[in-house]
Structure formats: structure tokens, C-alpha cells
Amino acid sequence: MRRTEIKAILSQEEIGAEVVVKGWVRNYRGNNFVMFVALNDGSSLQNLQIVIDNEKFDAQLLKKITVGSSLSITGIIAKSEGKGQSIEILASLVEVLGTANADEYPLQPKKHSLEFLREIGHLRFRSNTFGAITRIRHQMIYAIHTFFNERGFYNIHTPIITGSDCEGAGEMFQVTTLDLKKPPLTKEGHIDFSEDFFGKQTNLTVSGQLEVEMACMAMSKVYTFGPTFRAENSNTSRHLAEFWMIEPEVAFADIYDDMDLAEEFLKYLISYALKHCREDLEFLQDRLLQEEKSKPEQDRSMPLIEKLEFVLANDFQRLTYTEAIEILKESKPNKKGQFKYDVKGFGTDLQSEHERYLVEKHFKKPVILTGYPKEIKAFYMKQNPDGKTVAAMDVLFPQIGEIIGGSEREADYDKLYNRMIEMNIPTEDLHWYLDSRKYGAVPHAGFGLGFERLMLFVTGMGNIRDVIPFPRYPKSAEF
Ligand code: 4AD
Ligand code: MG
User: Fold this and answer.
1) CATH number belonging to domain 126-171+206-316+365-466
2) What are the residue ranges of CATH 3.30.930.10 in the chain?
3) Which of 453, 456, 473, 476 to mutate to test the pocket of ligand 1 (most atoms within 8 A of CB)?
4) Which of 163-167, 434-438, 445-449 has the lowest mean pLDDT?
5) Quick one: angle between helices 304-313 and 278-292, nearest 10?
6) Every domain range in the chain assigned CATH 2.40.50.140
């Protein structure tokens, strides 16, 4: 007989039907006569209760049923008398697929701290919290592809190994097969990368944007969704060294189209989560409410689902960087010296404390900032007529700060070339990028959404290390 998933059994409630279920024991209890096992197979947050009549089974077999062990159960679906579940399985056949030594198994049927779960990252999929996050993460990936597919975008696989250091000089991970103890040297005594695997120096990509722009110049609407790598030493709850990024790129579009797409995209994903991940969101919401119970009422955050609905119900506040700087300069925390970094005026690079002030305290809703000083933004952004700012946009979210960064691109060959020279960007390495401005250039715009930042917002989790299966950050590449 084929295995039925627990989710299907719980939703169909086919009383009297015989089924085979397989999964892992989350908990068990009982007495001399009967044993109740809570079985989970990942298809649902809910466990399925298995009722085992001790008399019908070998005592040695039943002893092997411990927390973490895996079982195959054949039985009949019955109405449950007990509270906590409406149906249960009356077992007729019990098979222990894999035992789990109770003295060693680190997960207990109780609440573990997130820090502890991170230490046992290889097992944390078996916790309710990480199971919920895993299901939501999957639904969000699916929703992203659905969103773009419905709108006629093509998905482009951009390279992970790159030969050009496009935007983040100095924060890339090198890829090499050279012997680090004895690298080949040139006559001048430098490392001779012509002997390296690719015949040149290569790195892990920080973004698929430059390559996806090439596809955009033929396919009109494209996006890449891949892993990106940044070797910045940021030990924060919002940074990873390896994270996933969604980068759409649209031809014949300007910065306003870009903002519209970003807002529509984020709202689509949030509303998708509310529709398709209700049970897991409710679980995470309860978890957060429990955590905040000890805080005074005015310090508690909005319940998770209410927060998600709030974002859907409001237009994002759009304003220029220059306007934002004025607000921040005049703000109470700035005047009282409560920001870690003072806001001095035009040119100040905004920190997440400033971004969060605008979103959480001033506007009390998501914000899109445009028109950043060209000095603090990438070389490829469209230069505004004022000569000072570029057509950049950042979307700022409560609790997160920057969730999206994007821009209209500089489509004019000369302006782009000159900016690259000014910023010491090697024009020879990026000859192919410059070509796109030589052959049929058109206005185009795009952005990057940090997938784990989205996950932080949707799940309400506080640390980005808890929304990706195996986080990589400074001094940590476990598992
Ligand atoms: O603002 P960023 O650096 O933009 C780009 O990489 C552009 N090439 C995007 C584009 O226009 N196609 O990064 C985009 C987003 C940020 O807004 C943030 O959400 C996320 O990526 N991000 C990170 N997420 C986790 N850990 C990090 N270290 C991140 N750095 C950026
Ligand atoms: Mg950015």
C-alpha cells in the first residue's frame, strides 16, 4: 500500500479507511495498555496521533519507539475521543524504520531556544518552528516564479562563478584551484592567475544583475533568482555571506515603473503567504506573542498576521533621499544624539537605524527612497540631470530596513563609460557590459530583493540565520 501524507489524512478525515503513514516520532505517552504517538512527516505542522494497543504488539518492538525514531504505521482512521485532534489512527501494523537512541537524541518535545537549534542545524528541520519556516520558504519560492511567469518574464540562470568584480570591490570570495602554499608567480613576483583553472582571477558572484541585463536587451522582461556571496564582515541579524537574491530587469522601463513593480511584487508575495501558509503563520504568530508576553504592552510589536495585512492595505510612502535626510536631520533621535551614526546632511549613507526610524516611527509604513547621491551608489545607475543624484531606489521595511535595492540603469554609453573611469571600474573586463549600450540600448530598470530579508519579514523571525537552512556568516560554515 502506498503511503498517504499526514496533511491529506487530516484534511480529508476519511473515517474507517485503511492507510499507511510514515514519519518521525515527535512525542509519545501511554500506560501499560495503550501508547499514543505523535507522528510528523513534514507535510503539515500538525502531528497525527497513532494509537497502539500494547497487547497486539511485541513489547521489544514498542520499546524502540522513542522521540526521533521513524515509523511506518498501517491502520484505520478513527474519530478521536481525546482532545487536541479530531482523528487518529488505530494501528494494525507497526514497523520501526530507524531507531533514535534516546540518551543521545538532542531534540526533546519541548521548546528549544533558536540558538540551540542553530547549533544542531542538521536536525532543526524536525522542530515545529523550522518546519513552518521551511514550508513558507518553499511557498515563497513558488510564488516568486509564479508572479514573474504570469507577467511574461523569463527566468535566466546567471553564472555563480564570475570573472568580473562588478559592484563590490573587495567583498568577493575568490575561486581558485591554485596551490595556496606554492602559487605560480609571474616574473614580477605576483600570483600568476593565467595558470589558474579559468586562466584568470575568478570570484563567486555578488549579484546576477550585469549578466541578466544582457538577457534583458533581447528578451525584454527577465529575472534571475540565485545564490549570491558577499565576504563583508557583517555580523548582524540581517546579513549572510551566502544569500539568495531575486533580480528582475525590465526593458523600456524607468525608475517609476521599477518602483511600481517592486511594490506590486512584495504585496503579491505577502498576500500569497497569507493565503497559502495560514497555519504556519498562525503558529509563528503565537510563538512571537508568547515571547513578547513579558514585555510592557506598548513595547510589543503588532501581531504577525496583522502586520502583513497592514503592509498590503497601505501604499508605500515614496520620497527622495534628500527629503528623507531633512526628516532625519530634524528628528528627535538625531538631535539628541541617539543614533549611532549622526545624520549630517546630503551625502550621509543611511544606516539601518535611520531607515527603520523613517519606516517605523515617522511614516509608520514601508518607504521607497529615490534619488540617492551618486557617490554612495553603483556605477551603472542612471545619472539624474542635477549632476548629483542617480535614479536609485531602495525599499525600506519595518524591522528589516532595506529589503530591495534597485535603479534605472544608465543607458547612455558615454555617461556610463565616464562614470566607470571616475570610479576606477575596469572597462576592459566589462567590455561586454559596455557593448549593450553600443548596440540598441534602451531605457531599462531593475532591482534585487534579498530572499532571506523577505523571509524575515514574512515569518517575523528576528535573525536571518533562522530563515535559511544552512546559514553562512563570518567564522561559520557548519554542515
Ligand atoms: O542593494 P544590493 O546590493 O543590490 C544589488 O545587488 C543590485 N545588483 C540589485 C539589482 O539592482 N539587480 O542588494 C539587493 C538586496 C538588498 O536590498 C538586501 O535585501 C539583500 O539584497 N542583501 C542581503 N541579504 C542578506 N545578506 C546580505 N549580506 C545582503 N546584502 C544585500
Ligand atoms: Mg543596497
Assistant:
1) 3.30.930.10
2) 126-171+206-316+365-466
3) 453
4) 163-167
5) 120
6) 6-109
Q: How many residues does the chain have?
A: 479
Distances in Å between the Cα of 259 and the Cα atoms of 150, 199, 359, 387, 411 are: 19, 41, 17, 22, 18
Looking at the CA of residue 247, tell me the nearest atom of ligand 1. Answer: 12
Residue 167 has pLDDT above 80, yes or no: no
| 205-220 per-position pLDDT tens digit | 999 999 999 999 999 9
Amino acid present at 401: G
Looking at residue 168, what is its pLDDT? Answer: 53
For ligand 1, which residues put their CB under 6 angstroms from it?
A: 207, 209, 230, 234, 239-240, 243, 245, 247, 402-407, 446-448, 450, 452-453
Residue in this structure with the C-alpha cell 515603473, named with its chain if needed: 257
Contacts of 7 (CB under 8 A, 6+ apart): 43, 44, 46
| Ligand positioned closest to the Cα atom of 404 | 1
The 10s digit of each residue's pLDDT in 396-415 is: 999 999 999 999 999 999 99
How many Å apart are CA 324 and CA 372, to the nearest integer?
A: 10
Quickly list DSSP for 343-383: --STTPPPPHHHHHIIIIIIISS-EEEEEEEGGGS-TTBPB
Task: Retrieve residue 91's grid coordinates.
Answer: 494501528
Q: Does domain 6-109 correspond to CATH entry 2.40.50.140?
A: yes
CA of 240 to the centre of ligand 1 (A): 11
- pLDDT value at position 169? 52
